[in-house]
Amino acid sequence: MENIIQNKIDSVLDRIKEPQSGLSLSQIGFVEKIRCNSEGKNLIVFTNRLGHSKACCIALNMIVLGHIEKTIVEELKKEFPNYSIEFAE
Predict the structure, then answer these.
(1) Residue 74 contacts by C-beta under 8 Å, 6 or more apart in sequence?
(2) 2-88 CATH
(3) pLDDT value, residue 57
(4) Quick one: average pLDDT of 3-15?
(5) What angle do CA 47, 14, 24 make, to 5 degrees?
(6) Average pLDDT along the chain
(7) In the chain, what is the straight-line distance between the N-terminal and C-terminal CA atoms, in Å?
(8) Which of 40, 53, 43 is nearest to 8 (CA)?
């Protein structure tokens, strides 16, 4: 069962592209880990926001990061429709 969950998560991270570079989230390491609680039907996404941002473009980066997080939620909901999704840093 854990392999099925891991494969779904990997698929989501491979599908989502970072708009500035065109690389997938799995390639750039934006998501550090995703913790899954199958009993509580909860996914907690841990991100590496600091490694992704440059000080000169904070406002633009915050918009891009917001879009990426929204896309992560949308794509995870496709694979895990009955799960709640949270972000932690």
Answers:
(1) none
(2) 3.30.300.130
(3) 66
(4) 94
(5) 65
(6) 87
(7) 27
(8) 43
